[in-house]
Specification:
The complex is a heterotrimer. By secondary structure, chain B is of the alpha/beta class. In chain B, 38% of the residues lie in helices and 14% in strands. In chain B, helix 2 packs across helix 3 and helix 5 crosses helix 6. In chain C, strand 3, helix 4 and strand 4 form a beta-alpha-beta unit. The longest helix of chain C is centred in the C-terminal third of the chain and has 28 residues. The chains are: A alpha/beta, B alpha/beta, C alpha/beta. Chains A and B meet through helix 2 and helix 12 of A and helix 1 and helix 11 of B.
Chain lengths: 325, 323, 330
């Protein structure tokens, strides 16, 4: 290394945290809102905007696979487009499954073989790109799992141990993301669930807003399980679920009576997540790797994805990176 | 932005109607958006009334206490300062009794110089460099310019320029596509009628292009007079006489000029853009342009999205480092 | 009075799967439709918990019962669900069934069962027409030869007979991606299907984009027009791009090689290609009795589209129907 390079390095030390953006994008098309998969043009515009504010990479949903094949020639080809826009790669995929007690329910053993087969197929589809995590909601909707018993948690954990073994075979971590409306969302249930999972095969993915909504302190949860946390969704909320919000039929996420919009970008006024404490905990545990920013349904109630994304990055640069970067 | 050129961003694209972009939190979101995109300075635009609360020095003071208070507001969003402010003395304002003034009319000159003073003082107080002014009103609203008209217009701007210079602020006259000063020759005559020590040109790449003037060629020709730049793109040029349409602000720019043009101004790098942005910026660099380059998208669409696409273009196509 | 009833299709309010899920959004849309001068709404079949108006099971889950939903509608000033649009190619999460094709004989039972499900609910909601996507996209299934048309006719005849048992008629919706736009194809299909069981849903915009004149189609199939959708077309598929594979995405959604920003709009939109007064006169000429449902398909401003549609209805079309009534009285 030359002296110049060394000097440059001391000026800009290697970052321990990189930032990825989780796909929930909408923009205004001529006939109403469209997502970035609408066309190559909207995809390019999306990637430019993500890059412009300084994100390093993207996360996506695994159901986008079909659009990747149809429009870009598969995940590897799509990733080339991502890279052409100056972003590193696809870091994580979110496995959005259609949970159903009849054929796809982690606490129902009869459905396990179907779920395992789903992951065998899915991981094969994605083997052409390097991924860090495949993220799952580890349970059905709360109302489909209740009463949540230790037995059900154990059965679920056993399933995810097996799934994690499959994904590990592809070099990808299986990691669990606890939506406030899923069957494993309370602090005691999360603790029991992890006590039955194998740390080699099942990781924890901290979603700051989801935990907060479920009255779980995400910082404390992270500090307890830091050794097996494989990633984060940094987003904020202004509301804690009240009453039956978490088990509202037929849906809690959009249809809860108390709250029309649960999620906001970090840096939002009246946000309940203590991101500075979160980042301090991340620093204290010497976490190195990716933090994902997620904006779920940001365009509701007059919101705007582009602006939320910029505000979140502003917050990361001006507040969080002062704590740890 | 870390670059040899100095980059700023115009806030006008957020202020699309009288009742929007009034609350401070909305303004904070815009400022944070620009900061996150690497823009450390902004351009303001003059306006009128209590809902245009970034539009006049006295209204800004009511909102933020003082010029320092306003700077503190910007800095709370990691925006460092103001590059410039756009002002059109021909636009009647509530604060001046809706007086209708024309730079062609020598009887109005004293009042125009007087009304410039608060802007100049405010810009000096916040460390901004340029008062960017509309030199003359729209072509459709007035008879064609005679030689003496240009002389009269030059006189008032020399006077304003003197006031500005005394405060350490530059004055840059902004060409726009509807202006009575329309052709390249008229623009040259206007520049020749003003004192180069006191009055510069604010070159707006899209406005010149729509008006039928090649911005790169004109910059090459008169680069020594260019003291301010607005960088934006367009996909259309005036067919020749559209700027003379009655109510051209509405009928041409908003009403599509009868050609169903939904939008005249576009972000840098837009498909089918008529401005050779790379050649223009290369010319700025070649001549060691010292002023501000203000990126603008006017009223073209979703403001945050446009700012992000403009920043992407600067970073990826013009190799400007964001931080 | 004529025998035409005016409705509005709700699909324009749901551009994305996470839109138009909450009750208050439905309420605002229904009140908008009502005050714009429409008495019914058309639903679009959907699946899953974010499609609360998508099928009978979701309606019951959300409103307690179909009666509960009907009360919700009438509370918003809407008298009835006019019709339900059903595309058998949509999978069902409620039934764990894959996409069905009306061209596949083995799928017919499944399609009939599902159609009955919708028809039974529709009857309770005051509706009278199940609008079905008559054929898959041309680019995905190739040309419709005589055998294929016969399979379609058999499927829809079976469906039509089943829905009639609920007092609901089945009307074939021809969209611009379908091979039914080719010369003679629709005539042949209607000829093969049981005329007592299967009618036609005329969608003014789809026909126009396909290069067909809706007035001519109405006159030609005068006895078979059982449902009408009024939407405007802003461009026509003059280059037969509908024959491309995956035209649903590449042509319909993205506008094809010309990148048409928007094929469809609310009736009367600026630059629209459909002459709605002429279409209305044609309907009156054939003595059409039934629903005319306004649609924009998608819209940047759904409420604006509904109000512009209401203006067209009140100012331009009702005078046409009133004149016809007056003439008949004389």
């Amino acid at each position: 290394m030359t002296a110049d390079q060394l000097a440059q390095r001391s000026e800009t030390p290697e970052r321990r945290i990189k930032w990825s953006y989780m796909d929930h994008w909408r923009s205004n098309g001529p006939a109403g809102p469209v997502d970035q998969w609408h066309s190559h043009r909207t995809m390019s515009s999306f990637l430019k905007q993500i890059k412009a504010v300084g994100f390093d990479a993207i996360d996506t949903f695994d159901f986008r696979l079909w659009q990747m094949y149809g429009d870009y020639g598969g995940p590897a080809k799509y990733q080339e487009m991502v890279q052409d826009h100056g972003l590193e790669r696809i870091v994580n995929i979110f496995h959005a499954a259609d949970y159903d007690l009849r054929n796809y329910a982690p606490h129902v053993p009869e459905t396990h073989e179907n779920i395992l087969e789903d992951f065998r197929v899915t991981m094969g589809h994605w083997s052409s790109v390097e991924l860090d995590n495949i993220i799952v909601m580890p349970a059905t909707l709360y109302y489909d799992m209740e009463p949540v018993t230790e037995d059900k948690l154990k059965i679920s954990a056993e399933l995810w141990n097996k799934v994690g073994e499959i994904t590990a075979g592809y070099g990808v971590k299986l990691t669990c993301h606890h939506e406030f409306f899923c069957g494993i969302q309370s602090e005691p249930d999360i603790e029991v669930f992890y006590s039955y999972t194998d740390p080699r095969y099942v990781s924890l993915f901290i979603d700051t807003a989801q935990h907060c909504i479920a009255s779980v302190d995400p910082v404390a949860l992270y500090r307890r399980h830091a050794h097996r946390v494989s990633g984060f969704h940094f987003k904020d909320t202004r509301n804690v679920a009240a009453g039956d919000d978490h088990r509202h039929r037929p849906d809690s996420e959009i249809m809860a009576p108390t709250t029309g919009k649960w999620f906001y970008e970090m840096g939002t006024p009246h946000g309940l997540v203590d991101f500075e404490a979160m980042m301090t905990a991340v620093r204290d545990n010497d976490y190195r790797g990716w933090i994902s920013v997620e904006h779920d349904k940001a365009n509701k109630d007059g919101g705007d994805y582009a602006e939320s994304t910029a505000i979140a990055r502003w917050y990361a640069v001006n507040v969080l990176e002062k704590i740890y970067r | 932005m870390r670059d040899t050129l100095r980059w700023a961003y115009a806030l006008n694209q957020w202020n699309i109607r009288m009742d929007v972009f009034v609350r401070h939190e909305d303004q904070r979101r815009a400022l944070k958006t620009l900061s996150a995109l690497g823009f450390g300075h902004i351009e303001l635009a003059a306006g009128t009334g209590r809902w245009d609360n970034l539009g006049r020095p006295e209204v800004i003071e009511i909102n933020h206490g003082s010029p320092e208070g306003f700077l503190a507001f910007l800095r709370s969003c990691s925006v460092n300062g103001v590059s410039s402010m756009f002002w059109d003395p021909g636009q009647p304002v509530e604060e001046e009794g809706w007086a209708f003034r024309s730079t062609r009319n020598r009887d109005d000159h004293a009042a125009i110089v007087e009304s410039a003073k608060p802007f100049v003082d405010f810009l000096a107080a916040i460390g901004a460099e340029q008062l960017v002014a509309r030199p003359v009103g729209s072509a459709w609203m007035q008879p064609p310019l005679g030689r003496d008209d240009i002389a009269a217009i030059g006189e008032v701007w020399n006077s304003v320029g003197k006031v500005a210079a005394a405060a350490g602020v530059g004055l840059a006259l902004h060409y726009d596509c509807l202006s009575a000063v329309h052709t390249a020759d008229e623009l040259r005559r206007l520049l020749d009628a003003t004192d180069p020590e006191l009055v510069g040109l604010a070159l707006d790449t899209a406005e010149l292009t729509i008006g039928g003037i090649d911005p790169v060629a004109f910059y090459e020709e008169r680069h020594e007079r260019v003291t301010h730049v607005h960088l934006k793109d367009t996909r259309y040029a005036d067919t020749g006489e559209e700027y003379r349409m009655p109510g051209a602000e509405t009928t041409m720019l908003r009403g599509g000029a009868g050609r169903r043009i939904e939008r005249w101004f576009f972000e840098l790098g837009t498909e089918g853009g008529l401005v050779d942005v790379k050649a223009f910026v290369a010319a700025l660099r070649r001549h060691g342009y010292p002023g501000w380059v203000v990126v603008e998208s006017d009223h073209g669409g979703n403001p945050a999205e446009l700012a992000m696409l403009n920043s992407w273009y600067l970073q990826q196509e013009l190799s400007v480092a964001r931080t | 009075m004529t025998d035409i009833r005016w409705g509005y299709a709700l699909n324009q309010w749901k551009p994305q799967f996470d839109d138009f899920v909450r009750r208050e959004q439905h309420e605002r849309a229904l009140k908008t439709v009502s005050i714009a001068g429409f008495e019914g709404v058309e639903l679009t079949a959907g699946t899953g918990r974010w499609e609360p108006l998508g099928n009978p099971q979701q309606l019951i889950a959300n409103f307690g019962s179909l009666t509960g939903f009907r009360e919700f509608l009438s509370g918003c000033g809407i008298a009835a669900v006019s019709s339900w649009f059903y595309d058998p190619q949509q999978r069902s999460m409620e039934h764990l069934t894959p996409p069905y094709s009306p061209l596949v004989a083995a799928d017919v039972t499944g399609i009939v069962t599902r159609a009955e499900w919708f028809a039974g609910a529709l009857a309770q909601l005051g509706g009278s027409v199940l609008v079905v996507r008559a054929a898959p996209s041309a680019g995905d299934v190739g040309p419709l030869d005589d055998a294929a048309l016969r399979r379609l006719a058999d499927c829809w005849t079976a469906v039509g007979r089943a829905t009639l048992a609920h007092g609901v008629r089945t009307a074939l919706h021809v969209d611009f991606l379908s091979s039914l736009r080719r010369p003679g194809a629709l005539d042949r299909l209607l000829g093969l299907a049981d005329p007592a069981a299967v009618g036609l849903a005329v969608d003014t915009a789809e026909l126009t984009v396909a290069g067909l004149d809706p007035v001519e189609v109405i006159r030609r199939h005068r006895g078979r027009v059982w449902h009408v959708q009024y939407k405007d077309a802003l461009a026509a598929d003059t280059d037969e791009e509908y024959l491309q594979p995956h035209a649903e995405y590449s042509v319909r959604q993205r506008g094809g090689s010309r990148e048409i920003p928007r094929w469809f709009a609310e009736p009367g939109a600026h630059g629209g290609l459909v002459d709605f007064a002429a279409v209305t006169r044609a309907l009156l000429d054939i003595g059409y009795a039934g629903w005319v449902v306004f649609e924009s398909d998608q819209s940047p401003h759904p409420a604006t589209s509904a109000l512009l549609g209401g203006y067209l209805l009140q100012r331009d079309l009702r005078p046409v129907t009133a004149a016809a009534v007056e003439a008949a009285a004389r």
